[in-house]
UniProtKB/TrEMBL annotation:
Pfam families: MFS_1. It is a multi-pass membrane protein. The keyword RNA-binding does not apply. Coiled coil: none annotated. The chain crosses the membrane at residues 12-33, 53-72, 84-100, 106-126, 147-166, 181-200, 235-259, 271-289, 301-320, 326-347, 359-378, 384-404. The keyword Phosphoprotein does not apply. Its main location: membrane. It comes from Mucilaginibacter litoreus. This is Sugar MFS transporter. Keywords: Cell membrane, Membrane, Transmembrane, Transmembrane helix.
């Protein structure tokens, strides 16, 4: 069809490749945190509820950094925003060296917090950056495409962690040598990516298409932008939905390895490999979701996937052995489109408030700091029962998706 919007333009190919790589890099860091969660239980001898503070440190950084990152991006642009994010990411990784030497859980939490401030900055910048690289009507597809590579990073994270950290426990279970060496390597890689990104030419007049034409379904519609940011009801609900979405994600991932060990009696290393496989399923879900959105409205697909995860959580909570473990793996398949779709739907119709809106939606990621400690309190007694808690989150996401069109018209 002549009026069918294109995925992107040829002149943006190299930029898209670089921005997509950012999604992969923070995917690695996020899921490495879940491997560290179990490793700290083993080596530093802390409880599940206390180890959940790993996720509190990571996701809590989003609540702190979301607004500053948005203001920095608005003042200095996408490129400088990316460079700031990579700098903080690398600094946090290098702080693992003194934290390992001190064998201090609180020092690790500080290092993770700084690293996660970098992740929060990258997420704040990368989503509107990716949205700007083509027609607004295909922004959902572009963001889901990039998030698929976030899934690739999510697969790589636990694979690296299980091989270099959990596998190494057999050789020196009472120290943190493997953690220190691994994060030195990560810090060097991130620093090199930052240097490479500085040579990338980003058009100075790059305009976020959300400020030009913000209706995914009506070709040629140019809305009148008269509302203030928080007068957009669909945006406010998107921030709430994102908070609950990441809350569920943080809790589910934090105790995946514990579930595999306690319910299916796997070693920690093998459970981490299954965690990596579950993230492969999330990547498949994102590619599938990108395709399905050509035929199913994004909010409707989001509602279907939210219902899918409610069912999966009920099965997981029953501790049916491998059946429940398979359902736990499938939770990540249904997770797949949630974060990018909520993000993209929330940005619709915001006009010049888009960048500020992006920073608030990223702040919703602080939800991931709340659920792991709460789930950990239940998991201390029964890890399977703790998976009933995320059902609350998926009910909120379903409500957002189901009511999206009516909220958007207000």
């Amino acid at each position: 069809m002549e009026n069918e919007p294109q995925f992107t333009e040829k002149r943006y190919y190299i930029i898209i490749a670089f921005v997509t790589s950012l999604f992969l890099l923070w995917g690695v860091a996020m899921t490495m945190g879940d491997v560290l969660n179990k490793h700290f239980q083993n080596v530093l001898h802390i409880s599940k509820s206390r180890s959940g503070l790993v996720q509190f440190s990571i996701f809590g950084a989003y609540g702190v950094m979301g607004i500053p990152a948005g203001l920095f991006m608005k003042r200095f642009g996408y490129k400088r925003g990316v460079q700031l994010g990579l700098l903080l990411y690398a600094c946090g990784a290098f702080l693992f060296v003194p934290a390992s030497d001190a064998e201090s859980f609180n020092f690790f939490r500080i290092a993770l917090f700084i690293l996660a401030c970098g992740l929060a900055t990258l997420e704040t910048v990368a989503h509107p950056f990716m949205a700007s690289l083509g027609d607004q009507r295909t922004s959902d597809q572009r963001i889901n495409f990039a998030q698929a590579f976030n899934g690739v990073g999510g697969i790589i994270g636990p694979l690296i962690g299980s091989y270099f950290i959990l596998r190494a426990e057999a050789g020196h279970s009472q120290d943190l040598i493997a953690v220190k060496h691994l994060y030195i390597a990560i810090g060097i890689i991130i620093a090199l990516v930052g240097i490479s990104f500085s040579f990338l030419k980003v058009p100075a007049n790059l305009t976020d298409p959300h400020t030009v034409a913000t209706d995914t379904y009506a070709v040629g519609k140019t809305p009148q932008v008269t509302k203030k940011l928080f007068q957009h009801k669909h945006f406010v609900f998107a921030v709430i939905a994102q908070l609950f979405n990441v809350a569920a994600q943080g809790g589910t991932w934090a105790f995946f390895i514990n579930y595999g060990h306690e319910i299916v009696h796997l070693t920690d290393e093998k459970a981490a490999y299954y965690f990596s496989f579950s993230l492969f399923m999330m990547m498949i879900g994102r590619f599938a979701g990108t395709l399905l959105m050509r035929y199913i409205a994004p909010n409707r697909l989001l509602a279907i996937f939210a219902l899918g995860n409610i069912i999966m959580c009920i099965i997981v909570s029953q501790a049916f052995g491998w059946v429940s473990f398979a359902a736990l793996i499938m939770i990540n398949f249904f997770f797949s489109i949630m974060f990018p779709t909520i993000f993209s739907l929330g940005l619709k119709d915001l006009g010049p408030n888009t960048q500020q809106g992006s920073s608030f939606i990223v702040m919703g990621v602080v939800g991931g700091a709340l659920f792991p400690p709460l789930m950990g309190l239940i998991a201390n007694k029964n890890v399977a029962t703790s998976y009933l808690l995320p059902i609350i989150c998926y009910a909120v996401i379903f409500a957002f998706a189901y009511s999206y069109n009516s909220f958007r018209k207000r």
